[in-house]
């Protein structure tokens, strides 16, 4: 890294967690500042998480102090006090740690040209976490502007898990010129030591959380110095914390950490972890990245990992020493998840990472960036377009699309141009574009940002202590007297205000808050490996007896799909007719497909009653028997039912709300006050209805469609599945349920259930279903 730095070359560093990436990224900066001290801003460090910037400051300031260097290192995020933010623009430190959103705001000020004119290096940490999404789009546009202000700027990116090195090099390079970016590869380090935890009796038929193993997980916590227990969702983190607490007979100190907890609560837990006061921390992806605690000696993953890159990232949180094996334990939730856990282990051993999917830049992000540039200074259209195209996600942007983006910021578009509140930009006689009124500059800076969270309510005690946030949709289901688990406590609702849920601590049994964040889909490479296991009986000797027996019975009773084949089973049960498709395209895609297929069944008189899905299969059930499944899987379902469904569902409205906020059409905040979620939703729904009716080709409707398609429904995987379905389908008509169908069928009825007694009832039902499926006759 020093060599590439001295040569002035851009560089991508890929090295395992604990190899010293951060210091390697900063070393050229420290060397330059020792050899040629400077007072202005020399290096920008951009990270995906606010907490990460704080963590790195700790890890960077210590070596700087030990070397006796008089360098100023500061952080700038949404949590930075406003007086420090103002001072940083006038007298910036030599090294500034920030996030993509805060950098975009800095670039919206006129003094950004003087602040960044001497910038020599930008270091992007954990680049895999955002390069392929909207935050990556924003960051690539910010880098394009920084390169114009300081042409000699050197770009550096760091990551532990990158499958497509060339893709990231192109993303990092000015104008996508891959040859300008050196690839620096770290040593691999010791292979991780990963085990799959097997229950004392049998692997369950259903469930996806590994909750059955609470006592065994607690035993692992007792054996190790410090453990992190990763959960795939915030709800599961709260649930697992409660499960562990019930079996924590030694009363060991354990904590819980996820993105919806209050900042003070997260900092307190992080501090307790850093100082070794906690034996275990139950966490979500909020800790996937970069929070480095050297004393963690075991990582436990509850439920299947969903991808090999994510698993490696999480394993890397253990040990943090290159020459010692990280220890990790996977706790599969059911039999399919056992196969997935085994597939993840094999993928890690083979060094196979999940594919990175780069896509064209989002237009709502571009609109926000163009407005930020206008806030900094008037601009000339051709020059800004040239600058924007130097960012890889926007390299193919056409003149006409850029014209539409400018038109949208100029007056809101054809349907909205009568309203002054949408006239944010004006092109004047000299040809330059300027902000129409100073109020729009204030509005932009208050509302800029890429992360549009679901509308949240604060959870607080009467005395004002803030515990964190829950989604408005979940809060709407609660009444005073109801209890729910949050921040590791049982909270009883006292009253619900517009923005606050006032609670008190309770000892009553409680439910778990649900969050609408999209579930992590099963990665395609793990799905392919699981399919490979099903089709290759020579592998089965590696599996526990009950998993092997399950697959052997399936082969006898029905069939196992070969790679590339779509197995569809139909059978009657208790007066209903079932169809189960084993498509392995992940929960999001299966949820969408279930909606579409039941709509088509309705139209064809098949009287559907419902559907359930997991990552591996989709089960649809109804009154009439399905004799021709192929007709339900035809690709034209995406042209007819999909379009109708998306337009009528909340999906497109929700996507539109996000792009309207990002694109600056609707403000979340006004000076001195913040709109409630309901007000934002009301404003965007109103505009959405007007545009749908009068201007269906509006730029933001197009952006909302792109979002709804890609992110919320995994439509790419869906389209691929439907294209292949006709020629790869193997339809097996049977007299009764099969072993492979049991894990997905046990989900029927589970969605609506939250109490313990119903859980017992479902367990009995699952066992009865399994006994029927595993009968030989």
TrEMBL record:
Fetch the PANTHER family from UniProt.
ATP-DEPENDENT HELICASE LHR-RELATED-RELATED (PTHR47962), LARGE ATP-DEPENDENT HELICASE-RELATED PROTEIN (PTHR47962:SF3)
Q: Which species expresses this protein natively?
A: Sphingomonas taxi
One GO molecular-function entry: helicase activity
User: Is Isomerase included in the keywords of this UniProt record?
Assistant: yes
Annotated keywords:
ATP-binding, DNA damage, DNA repair, DNA-binding, Helicase, Hydrolase, Isomerase, Nucleotide-binding
The Helicase C-terminal domain covers 213-356
**Family, as annotated:** Belongs to the Lhr helicase family. Lhr-Core subfamily.
Q: What Pfam families does its record include?
A: DEAD, DEAD_assoc, Helicase_C, WHD_Lhr
Q: What PROSITE patterns would the database entry show?
A: HELICASE_ATP_BIND_1, HELICASE_CTER
Protein's recorded name: Helicase
Which positions fall inside the Helicase ATP-binding domain?
2-172
> Which top-level group of life is the source organism from?
Bacteria
Write down the InterPro entries for this protein, in alphabetical order. ATP-dep_Helicase (IPR052511), DEAD/DEAH_box_helicase_dom (IPR011545), DEXH_lig_assoc (IPR026362), Helicase_ATP-bd (IPR014001), Helicase_C-like (IPR001650), Lhr-like (IPR017170), Lhr-like_DEAD/DEAH_assoc (IPR013701), Lhr_WH_dom (IPR045628)
Q: Which processes are annotated in GO (biological process)?
A: DNA repair
């Amino acid at each position: 890294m020093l060599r590439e730095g001295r040569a002035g070359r851009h560089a991508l560093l890929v090295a395992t967690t604990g190899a010293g990436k951060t210091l390697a990224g900063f070393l050229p900066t420290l060397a330059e500042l020792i050899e040629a001290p400077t007072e202005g801003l020399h290096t920008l460090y951009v990270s995906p998480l606010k907490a990460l910037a704080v963590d790195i400051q700790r890890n960077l300031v210590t070596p700087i102090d030990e070397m006796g260097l008089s360098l100023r290192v500061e952080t700038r995020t949404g949590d930075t006090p406003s007086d420090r933010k103002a001072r940083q623009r006038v007298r910036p430190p030599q090294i500034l740690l920030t996030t993509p959103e805060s950098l975009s705001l800095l670039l919206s000020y006129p003094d950004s040209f003087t602040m960044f004119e001497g910038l020599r290096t930008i270091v992007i940490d954990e680049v895999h976490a955002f390069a392929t999404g909207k935050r990556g789009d924003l960051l690539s546009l910010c880098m394009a502007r920084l390169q114009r202000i300081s042409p000699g700027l050197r770009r550096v990116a760091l990551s532990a898990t990158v499958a497509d090195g060339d893709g990231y090099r192109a993303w990092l390079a000015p104008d996508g010129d891959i040859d300008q970016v050196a690839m620096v590869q770290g040593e691999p380090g010791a292979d991780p030591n990963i085990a799959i935890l097997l229950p004392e009796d049998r692997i369950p038929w259903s469930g996806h959380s590994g909750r059955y193993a609470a006592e065994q997980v607690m035993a692992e916590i007792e054996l190790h110095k410090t453990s992190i227990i990763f959960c795939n969702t915030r709800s599961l983190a709260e649930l697992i914390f409660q499960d562990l607490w019930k079996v924590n007979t030694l009363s060991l100190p354990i904590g819980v950490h996820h993105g919806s907890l209050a900042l003070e609560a997260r900092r307190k837990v992080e501090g307790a972890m850093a100082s070794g006061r906690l034996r275990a921390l139950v966490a979500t992806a909020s800790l996937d990245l970069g929070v480095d605690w050297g004393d963690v000696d075991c990582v436990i993953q509850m439920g299947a990992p969903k991808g090999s890159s994510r698993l490696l990232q999480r394993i890397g949180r253990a040990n943090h020493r290159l020459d010692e094996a990280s220890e990790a334990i996977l706790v599969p939730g059911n039999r399919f998840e056992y196969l997935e856990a085994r597939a993840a282990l094999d993928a890690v051993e083979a060094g196979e990472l999940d594919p990175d999917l780069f896509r064209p830049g989002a237009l709502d992000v571009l609109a926000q960036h163009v407005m930020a540039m206008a806030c900094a200074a008037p601009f000339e259209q051709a020059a800004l377009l040239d600058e924007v195209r130097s960012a890889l996600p926007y390299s193919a942007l056409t003149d006409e699309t850029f014209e539409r983006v400018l038109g949208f910021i100029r007056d809101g578009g054809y349907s909205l141009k009568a309203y002054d509140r949408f006239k944010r930009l004006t092109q004047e006689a000299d040809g330059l574009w300027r902000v129409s009124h100073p109020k729009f500059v204030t509005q932009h800076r208050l509302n800029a940002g890429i992360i549009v969270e679901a509308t949240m309510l604060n959870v607080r005690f009467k005395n004002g202590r803030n515990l964190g946030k829950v989604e408005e949709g979940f809060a709407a289901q609660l009444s005073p007297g109801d209890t729910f688990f949050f921040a590791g406590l049982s909270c009883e609702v006292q009253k619900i205000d517009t923005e606050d849920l006032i609670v008190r601590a309770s000892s009553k049994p409680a439910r778990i808050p649900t969050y609408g964040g999209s579930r992590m889909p099963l990665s395609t490479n793990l799905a392919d490996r699981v399919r490979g296991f099903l089709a290759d009986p020579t592998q089965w000797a590696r599996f526990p007896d009950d998993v092997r027996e399950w697959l052997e019975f399936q082969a006898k009773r029905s069939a196992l799909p070969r790679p590339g084949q779509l197995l569809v089973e139909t059978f009657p049960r208790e007066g209903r007719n079932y169809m189960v498709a084993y498509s392995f395209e992940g929960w999001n895609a299966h949820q969408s497909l279930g909606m579409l297929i039941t709509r088509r069944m309705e139209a064809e008189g098949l009287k559907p009653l419902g559907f359930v899905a997991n990552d591996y299969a989709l089960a649809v059930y109804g009154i009439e028997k399905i004799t021709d499944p192929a007709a339900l899987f035809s690709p034209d379902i995406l042209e007819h039912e999909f379009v109708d469904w998306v337009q009528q569902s909340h999906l497109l409205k929700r996507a539109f709300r996000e792009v309207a906020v990002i694109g600056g059409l609707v403000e979340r905040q006004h000076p001195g006050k913040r709109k409630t979620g309901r007000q934002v939703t009301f404003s965007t729904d109103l505009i959405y209805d007007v545009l749908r009716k009068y201007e269906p080709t509006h730029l933001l409707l197009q952006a909302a469609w792109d979002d709804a398609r890609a992110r919320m429904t995994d439509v790419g995987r869906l389209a691929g599945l439907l294209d292949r379905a006709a020629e790869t389908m193997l339809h097996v008509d049977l007299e009764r349920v099969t072993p492979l169908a049991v894990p997905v069928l046990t989900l029927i009825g589970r969605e609506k259930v939250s109490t313990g007694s119903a859980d017992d009832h479902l367990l009995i039902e699952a066992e009865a279903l399994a006994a029927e499926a595993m009968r030989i006759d």
